[in-house]
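Contributing new complexes? Match this layout with zinc ion.
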Amino acid sequence: MATPFQPKNNSQAAGFSQKQLIERIQERFENLSDERTGSNISYQMSDAALSAFSVFFMQNPSFLAQQKLVEKSHGKSNLQTLFGTHKIPCDNQIRNLLDAVPPEEIYPLFNFIFKGLQETGYLKPFASIENSLLVAMDGVEYFSSQKIHCDKCSTQTLKNGETHYNHKAITPVIVSPKQSQVIPLAPEFILPQDGHEKQDCELAASTRWMAREQSLFTDQSITILGDDLYSHQPFCEQILAKNWHFILVCKPDSHQTLYEWLEDFERIGKISAYTQKKWNGRQHITTEYRYMNHVPLRNSDDALMVNWCEIKETNEKGKVIYRNSFVTDFEITDDNIVEITAAGRARWKIENENNNTLKTKGYSFKHNFGHGQQYLSSVLATLIILAFLVHTILEYFDACYRLLREYLSSRKMFFDDIRALTRYLCFDSWTNLLEFMLEQLEIPIPN
Ligand SMILES: [Zn+2]
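Output block (do not edit by hand):
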């Protein structure tokens, strides 16, 4: 099998090009489940999946309609040249075909990219405490309706008595306090599970994700980051059983026993404290750290003993500008408390850099593209996350893409320009499109 990784040399970064990634995506999509029988099949599954993916990749809900016009005037379209589709299905055909595809069939693409990043050393700058990768977990809603629903919808009764139907997923991402980007991993959907009467929940879905993806991290340990919901003993035990680590938000309201112990230790002066003052470019910030190792997570004889820490930042006026507390399995010392709290704090990136980007930065994650009868809404959500991942990867490996993204300052401007160009012109390849843009902007094309 051809590998997309080129041997690393000093002058050129090894990695993925858009063409190689699309080829790999095509190959996976050609093998998606196809329930249709008979010979009267005018569209291939890969046409449906690539067409849906192209809409998210190009951040253009009208991309397919536009490409039908481009095909009329040019004899071919950007959907064919940039994404390799054969024919352009209509929206309803896409929805019908994708509804039968379990999203798990797309997950191997995420793992393929992760392995590629690992092999080429691009994950090294992401390594954090004790050389582990920080994996932040969070739940996010991607479909909601008061009318449309299915037996896989989660439900919530609103104050006015109406039912709110929704679909949620956990969307794990690799984060680092030192990296502005995040690397999305395959999601896990919060759906009623066979044999369980109760509604599914975020913690159960996260536990399934860990079991499913365990083999991905055989060469490198990970540290799970999560909000207060995750600092729950059975979940922590699952993490430890995999020889992984955790740094989880732990609030007083939900962890009474632990905080009662801390109060007792405080009284006898056993809580360690460490203070740091730093100039942030505008003013001096005082950061106070407190920590205590070996405290029970819950009130039971078999309570898991965890290590607790707190960070509090105060500005020159004495105003508290940040405060949070965490529990972890890492033994806390004066030497690693700064690193541990920085890692725990990096959890916000899943909300800000991942979920918020998916919802508001052109990916329209919460726009209901379709609900379907079986898998449609979750397949579309998976394709959106995949598009975001491919964009992230291109910033690492595609020098033309990176230059243009920097030059055009915002993601919106970049995709607005691409939308206009691909509406009027047909480009032979992605490289051809990016080089055309660079030339028009009089930016030298990188080697
Ligand atoms: Zn549903």
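Reviewers usually confirm one structural detail per submission. For this one: Confidence is low (pLDDT under 50) at residues 1-13.
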